[in-house]
Amino acid sequence: MTAGSLDKLRELYEGESDKAHRFRYAVLIFDIGTILFVIATSFTQHGRVVESIDAVFGVVILADFIARVAIAPRKLRFLVMPVTLADMVSIVSFLAPLAGEGLGFLRVVRTLRFLHTYQLLKRLRADFPFFSRNQDVFVAAINLMVFIFVMTGLVYATQFGSNPQIDNYADALYFTVTALTTTGFGDITLTGSLGRMISVVVMICGVTLFLRLAQVLFRPNKVRETCGTCGLSLHDSDAVHCKHCGAIIHIKTEGQS
Asked: For the stretch 111-120, what's the b/e string if a residue is b when 16 or more beta carbons lie within 10 angstroms of its beta carbon?
């Protein structure tokens, strides 16, 4: 790959041009599409049509993976990152049906791709005022959604075929949500020591993330206005003085330019 090609790839993945931003939004949309496809096909038999779509997804993910490796300044470190390892498994799982291997269930690892949305948060705040005004709520919700998708995928991958209570992705999602909220109806349980450990992780980590979301939803509204004296960034919407150092702050209200 030539130096010019690498520069173009680096601009698309890391640049600040409008073209680069559109490209990264397209990658995000593709990621969400693959996740929805994984969920939808968990309810169906994986025939030739599904395998053909799998192959297309696999080729696109492989091309994206090669591009990211090419522009990575420290390639070895990049290759051992958790998200990179998840991409490797995703590539194999999407392309495996072409080799006749029974690895289709590994497609749920693609849910880890949601982690890539974090690199877009800065641009989302700049492009959409809603995200800027509700940054803490948005981040807490994303954290919870990522956890739910990852754990649901893990439940489905480890229990499908061996646990008669987990027939599709919806069953795995149902178990994850009931365990996370500690509702625990008991109609679906995970089998084996691994299943019990997954249940423990869902309950402990899930409750923590759920409470964090509830905290930012119901606490008094704050606005982001950095104090020029002490640097405190969150203040009450009607604050005149910084609560930390007492300096006067000037929070813009509606109608002010």
From this structure: bbbbbbbeeb
What's the one-letter identity of residue 60?
A: V
Give the per-residue SS3 of the chain.
CCHHHHHHHHHHHHCCCHHHHHHHHHHHHHHHHHHHHHHHHCCCCCCHHHHHHHHHHHHHHHHHHHHHHHHCCCHHHHHCCHHHHHHHHHHHHHHHHHHCCCCHHHHHHHHHHHHHHHHHHHHHHHHCHHHHHCHHHHHHHHHHHHHHHHHHHHHHHHHCCCCCCCCCHHHHHHHHHHHHCCCCCCCCCCCHHHHHHHHHHHHHHHHHHHHHHHHHHHCCCEEECCCCCCCCCEEECCCCECCCCCCECCCCCCCCC
pTM of the model: 0.67
Please tell me the distance from the alpha carbon of residue 71 to that of residue 36, in angstroms, as a whole number.
28
Domain chopping of the chain, boundaries: 1-124, 134-219, 222-257
Express each pLDDT in 102-134 by its tens digit.
555 566 666 666 656 555 666 776 777 777 667
What pLDDT sits at residue 112?
63
Please provide the CATH number assigned to the domain covering 134-219: 1.10.287.70
